């Protein structure tokens, strides 16, 4: 008879093995102490909350972890207030918009192909809360944000919130100009620094917090394995609104282990190794952009959006290219490269994860050449086989580091 779906698989660890690991005491004593207190509280009580029940007030042990993670985020990103979101089901930028907007408010943000898709998706996911989204685009001449057009739209529509940045935009916004415009039209300025949160954490880019009313970031693949996100502000009133909306959208209580992972990752972002990784990611993105600007790629119709990059990603516009973005993405995935398709014609290639695997400039040049040679309309099958072999060689040269426990789990029967 087949087992019930909830039956623990053979070889899976018992539930007690999922409790906080005290072995982090030497690496991070503050987190270890908070985890030990949480473990004592859990072992000394019987949890009988029902599945799907709304979260209870934050217990003292979790509150200690939350304060620790928030404090480290404040120091790392130079903010007066921070709220860490451990593996939240609701993205940081969506929570911020929910906190800042009232029904029928207008939002001014980047157009869909260049970073605005996150804002549009976030607002479309809110039932019964209609918002007006006004997109601004990039200049066709150089691919930069057209600030004259942004100013015209802001004065015409009087948005409640102006959003800059995004998860897939390759440039650092002109925050001084945007803030001046926001103040002129009475809008709040929100910066989604997802695409450059790593360099900011490493001290390679200035923090945008002092220029913005609210800053958000999705930290997946930015910090070491922690995921989640962060909300930042220097405004006490806005901080209260952000914390309130985050608590209202919390799922399944406040997971102490995830908060602990965030706290440890935020501490790790102050290390020289983290800074080196971010430097290599930035160099890798510039190497990739440079290769994709070469004549053989230009002949395919592919265009590097903004002409280069200031963040650890490159955005390619394939609107006038054969193959189109979807087909180009499929071809790269068949070679073992996993890009992100954005909009109908965009292909986003990030370098942070590869830097985490130890990629140096030579390896970035190699993968950049593979991508460039895969973009022509009909590459020869022998060429594709050769490119696939080059990708396989790179994966073997740069294995993913895994813990001993994770390694054992992958080998369990």
Automatic annotation (TrEMBL):
Cofactor entry: pyridoxal 5'-phosphate
Source taxon at top rank: Bacteria
Domain Serine hydroxymethyltransferase-like, residue spans: 65-371
Basic residues biased stretches: 1-11
Annotated GO MF terms: glycine hydroxymethyltransferase activity
The keyword Secreted is annotated on this UniProt entry: no
Region of interest: Disordered: 1-26
EC assignment: 2.1.2.1
SUPFAM superfamilies the UniProt entry points to: PLP-dependent transferases
Pfam families assigned to the protein according to its UniProt record, in alphabetical order: SHMT
Keywords, comma-separated and alphabetical: Pyridoxal phosphate, Transferase
Similarity annotation: Belongs to the SHMT family.
Protein name as catalogued: Serine hydroxymethyltransferase
Organism: Streptomyces mooreae
